[in-house]
Amino acid sequence: MNWALTILLASLLCLPHVHALSADYAGEKLTVVIIHAVLMVWVWMIVVPIGMIIARYLPAWTSRPWYRKHVLVMLIAGAIPFIVGSVMGSQSQSHNHNVSTIHHNIGSLVIGLFVLQALLGYFNHWDNVRKWMAVAPWYHGIHHWLGRITTLLALANIPLGFQYLQIGNWPYISWAIIVGVIMSALLGLELRYGNARKAKRERDFYKAASEVPMAPQNGPVPQYEPGGVHINGLNQDQTV
């Protein structure tokens, strides 16, 4: 979390410099553009990676549930700033038709994918409430991979918006360094804990299979929860 606070503090310290160099930004109020940029950097370069790490790797570190932590991070720290930033970006674009069509179109696509991701996440939660499915539904996998694709699109779109601030090369260099750190961290976590998560799932599965007695033929239907393996109606912790 220290690195996240460092990035946010550095962005705030650079705001006066940005204002001085970009005061003629197409007649648009620069404050709107700055708020849009800072919020998008916060969401896609700090919050979303943290949310992904919680969902994918927290079960390898602790036996405590990860699902609610993931939802709270993505909803409160992610969705709310993203909505505000999107409104600011839309307001800026509506008053300045010189804004890059590519940047605007990718941003619109990211907004649509973000909404779809939220709906898929809600369905995942609803599956948890109903607790009647024995296996994870097909759209859970879509939620996982669509999240990765949406994040990559958003990260690629950030430097396309830097050109309108007219403040030199430092934003691009900073973006490249931070993205490199994020990708390296995710790759390192996957190499370190990816197999551990798989091994843990297998151990839990065989342990449950050896300890849980066979249910009668007319016994209860196995229940489904996100991150659970179900053997004869007993839910065992497993990361999806």
UniProtKB/TrEMBL annotation:
An annotated GO cellular component: membrane
PROSITE patterns membership: CYTOCHROME_B561 (PS50939)
Domain called Cytochrome b561: residue spans: 1-198
Main location: membrane
Sorted UniProt keywords: Electron transport, Membrane, Signal, Transmembrane, Transmembrane helix, Transport
Presence of the UniProt keyword Protein transport in the record: no
Residues passing through the membrane, by range: 30-58, 70-90, 102-124, 145-166, 172-193
Entry's localization field: Membrane
Species: Bifiguratus adelaidae
Protein name per the record: Cytochrome b561 domain-containing protein
Keyword Signal set for record: yes
Signal peptide: 1-20
InterPro entries hit by this protein: Cyt_b561/ferric_Rdtase_TM
